[in-house]
Specification:
Mean pLDDT: 97
Low-confidence stretches: none
Radius of gyration: 15 Å
Number of strands: 0
Distance between the termini: 46 Å
Largest sheet: none
CATH class: Mainly Alpha
Structural class: mainly alpha
CATH architecture: Up-down Bundle
Length: 145
């Protein structure tokens, strides 16, 4: 398995775990920011779902085999599942940290894709990093006091 295939597969796992975590937070966000965060988490999981599919399909296009089972996602993710008892602030912090982890790993994968001359994968990842940067900025602004 090439380094690019392995890295993209890790991101398939990350995006699957994040998709589930965002649903959990969407359903269970407590407190006075419920409506705001309920809507925001839904926006995020819709976006993550599209990216999850795009990364998996790109991996297929370049000869890889994306993970497609929960046990594989959990065994290969670099993220942590929701605990189930988070406060609203902890939920936002967790998602911001997940976005930062994925952004860091995407940036490393961009270099791998460029080294392999794969500009299509590079473009896919660059677009995602742009979106992640904005989400991180907004979540950190929400958390500031």
């Amino acid at each position: 398995m090439s380094k690019l295939h392995k890295g993209l597969n890790t991101q398939v796992a990350n995006l699957a775990v994040l998709f589930v975590k965002l649903h959990h937070h969407h359903w269970y966000v407590p407190g006075p920011n419920f409506y705001l965060l309920h809507e925001k988490f839904e926006e995020f999981y819709d976006e993550v779902n599209e990216l999850y599919d795009a990364v998996a399909e790109r991996l297929l296009m370049i000869g890889g085999k994306p993970f497609s089972k929960m046990k594989d996602y959990l065994a290969n993710t670099t993220l942590v599942e929701a605990k189930g008892n988070e406060t609203a602030v902890e939920m936002v912090e967790s998602i911001a940290n997940d976005f930062k982890t994925i952004r860091k790993e995407f940036n490393a994968l961009i270099k791998v894709a460029q080294a392999e001359g794969d500009e299509v994968t590079t473009d896919l990842l660059l677009g995602a990093v742009t979106s992640l940067d904005k989400h991180i900025w907004m979540l950190e602004a929400f958390l500031s006091k």
